[in-house]
Amino acid sequence: MASAKLIFTFVIAFLLSLFISPSHSFWSYPPNDDGLKVSAIDSPKVNLSLYYDTLCQNCSTFIVTNLTEVFNNDLITIINLRLVPWANAYINKTNNAIVCQHGPDECLLNTLEACAINVWPNVNIHYAVIYCFQFLAIEGKHKDWKSCFDTLGLNKTSVLDCYISGNGTKLLQKYADETGHLSPPHRFVPWLVVNNQPLQEDYKNFATYVCKAFKGSGAPQACKSLVHKKIN
């Protein structure tokens, strides 16, 4: 437990150092209106979209353990990272209520993470918030989500306003539409898509796909060892 907390503190500090640095500039949310395809803006960046449930343990572990590496090895400099917290949720047609696979707490976290993405378009900021939420979820402490704002030094008012006003629900409905139009449909979570290509069971190998899809110059060092890796 102590080592996990140490890693958490280190990663949060690292992410904070990124989003307060003026030298980092990343793509902004939200996606285009149809929500289906997202194009890089003024760059040949690769679109990496993650479809997930906030209380899915495999999703939380992937975000905290695997996805964090894109920040550690500079892959984020060639990626338009999109986080889509919906996945296995659905809308009850009888009363239009959102139903989540892991219950009301997951619906709450889905909405809060959608709001964080909307409030802080900078990927370093909203990823840091989501990382913190998901770290707590792994430890079974997801109800302590408010502590993440204090840890990160962020004002939670805008996110709470987004949630209370119902704007978060509207954001989720857009994610629902996007997720519902995935081709092929997602079969499990986490579900990763690189430039509209679903990685399916090979999702943990996402970095190799990203490097192979990148057509620009100045690829990060991490790609040099991955680009020649065979993809089955």
TrEMBL record:
Pfam family, one: GILT
Bilayer-spanning residue ranges: none
Source organism (scientific name): Quercus lobata (Valley oak)
Name the UniProt record assigns to this protein: Gamma-interferon-inducible lysosomal thiol reductase
Family affiliation: Belongs to the GILT family.
Signal sequence range: 1-25
Gene this protein is translated from: LOC115954077
Gene Ontology MF term list: oxidoreductase activity, acting on a sulfur group of donors, disulfide as acceptor
Chain segments annotated as coiled-coil in the UniProt record: none
Keywords in alphabetical order: Glycoprotein, Signal
